[in-house]
Design brief:
With about 120 residues, the chain is mostly beta strands. The protein is built from no helices and five strands.
Length: about 120
């Protein structure tokens, strides 16, 4: 399992979808964080981090993902917060955080996401 991404991930300027974690019972138990260069993925539209059980946080540069429309973080059981910069992702239409049991609160900037149509917090504490 991949435990970290190289900073050079930010050089993938044409990348539209990045999938980590798992499906059908498979999970990533090693990935804890992302490099700040994640914010350099200017064309990224979909980020799938389902079942990244050890993921603790997203980088502050997350707000630079101006094309991001879909953020899936279902069952990321170690994430305690989302970066305040998420409010800068003005194209976001869907965020799924179901079963993120350690999530303590949403950032105030979530209110800036005027295109957001679906916010799933099913089974969050």
């Amino acid at each position: 399992q991949i435990s970290e991404l190289p900073p050079s991930i930010g050089a993938l300027k044409s990348l539209k979808k990045l999938t980590f974690g798992g499906s059908s019972g498979i999970c990533n138990k090693a990935l804890k964080s992302f490099p700040e260069s994640l914010g350099d993925l200017e064309n990224l539209e979909e980020l799938v981090l389902d079942k990244c059980k050890k993921l603790q946080c997203l980088p502050k540069s997350f707000g630079n993902l101006k094309s991001l429309k879909y953020l899936y973080m279902r069952e990321c059981k170690s994430i305690t917060y989302l970066p305040e910069t998420i409010g800068e992702c003005q194209e976001l239409v869907e965020i799924s955080l179901s079963k993120c049991v350690a999530l303590e609160m949403l950032p105030l900037s979530i209110g800036q996401l005027t295109c957001l149509e679906d916010l799933c917090l099913h089974k969050c504490k």
